[in-house]
Amino acid sequence: MKxxxxxxxxxxxxxxYVLESGGEKLMxxxxxxxxxxxxxxxxxxxxPYDPKEITALVVTHSHLxxxxxxxxxxxxxxxxxxxxxxxxxxxxxLLLLDSEHILADEAQRExxxxxxxxxxxxxxxxxxxxxxxHAPFTLGNFQIEFFEAGHILGSAIIKIMAEGKTILFSxxxxxxxxxxxxxxxxxxxxxYCVLESTYGDKVRENVDNRKExxxxxxxxxxxxxxTLLIPAFAMERTQELLYHMHQxxxxxxxxxxxVYIDSPLAIKLTAVYKKYENIFNKETQAIARNGDDILNFPxxxxxxxxxxxxxxxxxxxPKVIIAGSGMSQGGRILHHxxxxxxxxxxxxxxxxxxAVGSLGRQIMDGAAHVRIFxxxxxxxxxxxxxxxxxxxxxxPRLLNWIRPMRQSLKKVFLVHGEEASSIGLAQKIRDEMAIxxxxxxxxxxxxx
Length: 448
What we know:
By secondary structure, the chain is α/β, with parallel strands linked by helices.
């Protein structure tokens, strides 16, 4: 059995791995490269393998850095089936449709061919099969099963058995405790593991009090009569923020202020959540069953159209604006940042990972000026970070997930992390558990 790493090594985007056994090739994820600008030049390069030779594709979850090149893979000759949890398929369709026009615009500006079309996405959805958690299925030489990753709704750890060996693909593992979804499932044995390391060198100290920190930020913005800007990923992060704001307003812990979800995608994704209440955690399921709409409250405004988005500017302060993209690499958040970054009364709140080179990372790192739409924008507003809203496990959580398997694991491959994060986690695993831990290189093949 051979495993080749075609993406997400030394970086946190472009997840793409191929597992070979008995002449068959199983692909795990086919993600978009994101970071320096939305349509990274790598996305337009030919695949370093023949897509026609791929037997099937299994998907860990619906974030674009795990699914964003699937239509391109199809166009390049892949015609096997695609498998994921039901929620992942539904969310993936919306996320791919949303990214298509952004990528098309970017490609036109860059003078590159269009990556894929809406018609391509439709064709992909026809070969995409839904498989529930804990429902084993067989693809040729591979036995496959999905387990709860606790990262976003529908996210899966993929367990694959072949040739008498077991390999786990963690996908992205979740933070703890998750606000809405169920917690990450644990394993007591596996032979090999491909493990994400996004926060492999970080210890997050504010997970349990993230709601209280959000309360403080809202109170400060209300006091200053400013605007709270939150660049947020449309998937999961926006819903967790809504869930906690709903609680804070309902409990009277913060004054009610208008909250604008300025993201058509986030609005559509939030609607899908209701379809999958059965995979919420028990506490959230109980609240939903009692008739409480956990993602809605008085004063919440959903802005679908461009005109509605522009009207937010006329709304008096204080107010809260949640908009994409999560790393300020595009989308409606840029227009609001142009308006409110220079305002000392306002605050920008980061609640998710900001990749190196992204606009969000520049602001978070304290840049005095940034470039938005080719204009120089002064950053005078306050900047706050609540890392507890990250959907990624930190170093202690990653170590705790690996630890029960330490007696059986022959090797751990660390992926989906910047070099410092992966190195920090690798050293801990080696020192504390004596497990062979490697940081694969792009295009590297390992014989299992």
